[in-house]
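## tool: complex_structure
## caller: assistant
## args:
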Amino acid sequence: MASPAPRRFPDGFLWGAATSAYQVEGAVATGGRGESIWDRFAHTEGAVDGGGTGDVACDHYRRWRSDVDLMASLGLNAYRFSIAWPRLFPSGAGPVNPAGLAHYDRLIDALLARGIEPVVTLYHWDLPQALQETGGWRDRDTAARFAGYARECFAAYGDRVRTWVTINEPWIIGVLGHQLGIHAPGERDLGGSVRAMHHLLLAHGLAVQALRAGGGDGRAGVAYSLFPHEPASDSAADLAATEGSDGYVNRWFLDPVLRGEYPADMWRRYESALGHPLDWVRDGDLETIAAGADFIGVNYYTTRVMRAAPDRPPFGWEVVPVPDGTPVTDAGWAIVPSALTGLLLRLHRDYPRVPLLITENGGVFDDAPADPRRVGFLRDHLVAVHEAIAAGAPVAGYFHWSLMDNFEWAMGYAPRFGLVHVDYETQARTVKDSGRYYADLIRTGAVR
Ligand code: FCB
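## result:
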């Protein structure tokens, strides 16, 4: 059979891989770093599978030089990483910690020297514990603190960093961190989670305003965990459950930033589930949030198939378990590349003109160094991205999650997402077949 014609990506396309500070850095007590909510949470008995913590992780804080060499050897032209807020502000407030500042300064310079564009996330879940003590994201003041921290980063790195991601996945922070208690800070309170998510959006808006006020040419976006939704059947109840859950997961974040309003259907649902108004939303907040975004970061892993479940709190719907026989990753997440095309086209249709960056996409496959399933995953998702671009979606780049195996939050170290295998005993890095496949693809700028 003849091999398919190459599908070429646009010039200037960002070919990257992503990590986040707590998942890879380790060195949690080095360089004056303060405690984060993830340090506290991971050290709580039973919080993380296998008892893992980010204390050592991939030791990227010390090994960043050789890790940058590794990225260069793969031909990446972009690297998405996050700054650990508690390295810059160990106790949440006070003067900036020069050692923390210097670390990312060197990393950014080293990346640029190798022709790798730094794409910098400001908040990937590691809130300074000191700010949790004063209420964390449930407290409105945390948004103002975030803006102060963001301003410091823009001032220090804005001469070299062009692309900023303010907040990573406000829905996951709200749901897993504040509603279900599975992530830091481990709270279980629906109202607290809606409140926290509002302050996260406010924090985004304040940071965008600060970046623009600085007058540089940087661009700022926000990364969402977007889940394409499908109904389990054509019944009116399942269709309503699907539309409702789309409001809960996707529109609740897209609409305020890109349209200046919360979706009315979901607003009503929250008010009725909570039994009181969402009175932490103040006059003027939506104007701040609607400062908008220079791009939307799309984190795509899998879909949600929904059905009505009238007795199920808080909203009367549930996710249908993945049916036997569906291709899944080793985390059990259904592999549905075509849904990524649909998602990108939907964003392009419903929120026109906003550039899109795939800020995360990947899967757990435990095989290494030969990992044919990740090679297939990568290929099929890039074909899906290409299809969306061909149909007009303004996709500017793709970041695979993850550069290397790392600390996967509450799931600990067992799930491996990397293009590069990490031996946690020796910290040896071994490029997997998928890493080599990605390098070849980047070299040709096309997927077959
Ligand atoms: C996303 C997170 C990222 C990583 C992947 C698997 O929700 O942003 O840190 O854990 O999932």
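## assistant note: The chain is about 40% helix and 15% strand. The longest strand covers residues 117-123. Handing back to user.
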